């Protein structure tokens, strides 16, 4: 059994006194994958942003417990929140937009690592290349000098995952990471995430039942009036997936 790294108990999210989500309960352990699914518009992406406190001040988050490694997230100062976001990485549904169009991939990686590490140029390039290899890239020098508009959707998605992993997060949250990808690239992402989850906790927001069957250990189903937490087998039995 892995170690519990994220615990959410009776979490609710409201916007200007209107409740959007409530009664959210789950735990996440290292080496496990939680899939979050539900109909469009029910609040899956909202929840993913709430988990790293990226919602603006008009939103209000309440919980009986909302902790990362035993530390209450809602009580963190702004400085501590920045530390948290280096440990919980979020790859958004439109992750390609996080790749600045005026910077090639190498410059973007260098900017991130110069800000957060003491590695020299040779060291951080070697470090980044190790993540490119994990994400299934072959011609690493070509990717290093490529601009986002030169990448396919699948390559840009994998590059975004690589950037999210540079800080060695303990939790990776992926929002519809296989959306708009063909079957080959979807399978490639699934295999990559299977390998990555050995060392981290993984949360995946998805509509894709094949993705859930292939990767999830537990499933949180969001509905308009409730949220239900299942083991994978229980979910597959109830929803005939």
In a few lines, what is going on in this structure?
GO terms for molecular function: ATP binding; ATP hydrolysis activity. The protein is α/β, with parallel strands linked by helices. The protein has helices at 44-50, 78-87, 105-116, 121-134, 140-144, 153-165, 183-196, 209-215, 232-239, and strands spanning 4-15, 18-29, 33-38, 59-62, 65-68, 71-72, 88-91, 171-175, 201-205, 218-222, 227-231.
What is the percentage of strand-forming residues? 25-35%
Q: Provide the number of structural domains.
A: 2
CATH-assigned fold name of the largest domain = Rossmann fold
Helix content: 25-40%
Mean pLDDT: 89
Work out the oligomeric state of the chains in this entry: single chain
Order of helices and strands: EEEHEEEHEHHHHEHEHEEH
List the strand order in the largest sheet: 7-8-9-3-10-11
The tally of beta strands, per DSSP, is 11
Estimate the global geometry from the Cα principal axes: globular
Structural class of the helix and strand makeup? alpha/beta
Question: What is the CATH domain class of the largest domain?
Answer: Alpha Beta
H/I helix tally:
9
Query: Could you name the CATH homologous superfamily of the largest domain?
Result: P-loop containing nucleotide triphosphate hydrolases
Roughly how many Å is the radius of gyration? 18 Å
Low-confidence residue ranges? none
**In the CATH hierarchy, what is the architecture of the largest domain at level 2?**
3-Layer(aba) Sandwich
């Amino acid at each position: 059994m892995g170690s519990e790294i994220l615990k959410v108990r009776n979490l609710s999210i409201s916007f200007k006194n209107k409740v959007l989500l409530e009664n959210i309960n789950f735990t996440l352990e290292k080496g496990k994958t939680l899939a979050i699914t539900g109909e469009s518009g029910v609040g899956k992406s909202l929840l993913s942003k709430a988990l790293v406190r990226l919602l603006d001040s008009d939103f209000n988050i309440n919980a009986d417990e909302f902790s990362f490694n035993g530390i209450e997230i809602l009580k963190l100062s702004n400085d501590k929140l920045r530390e948290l976001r280096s440990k919980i990485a979020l790859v958004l549904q439109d992750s390609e937009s996080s790749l600045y169009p005026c910077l090639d991939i190498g410059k973007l990686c260098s900017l991130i690592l110069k800000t957060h590490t003491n590695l020299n140029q040779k060291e951080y390039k070697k470090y980044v290349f190790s993540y490119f290899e994990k994400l299934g890239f072959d011609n690493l020098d070509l990717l290093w000098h490529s601009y986002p508009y030169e990448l396919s959707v699948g390559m840009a998605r994998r590059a975004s995952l690589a950037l999210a992993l540079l800080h060695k997060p303990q939790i990776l949250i992926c929002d519809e990471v296989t959306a708009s990808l063909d079957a080959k690239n979807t399978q490639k992402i699934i295999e990559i995430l299977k390998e990555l989850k050995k060392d981290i906790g993984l949360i995946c927001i998805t509509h894709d039942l094949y993705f859930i069957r292939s990767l999830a250990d537990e499933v949180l189903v969001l509905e308009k009036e409730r949220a239900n937490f299942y083991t994978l087998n229980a979910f597959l039995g109830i929803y005939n997936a």
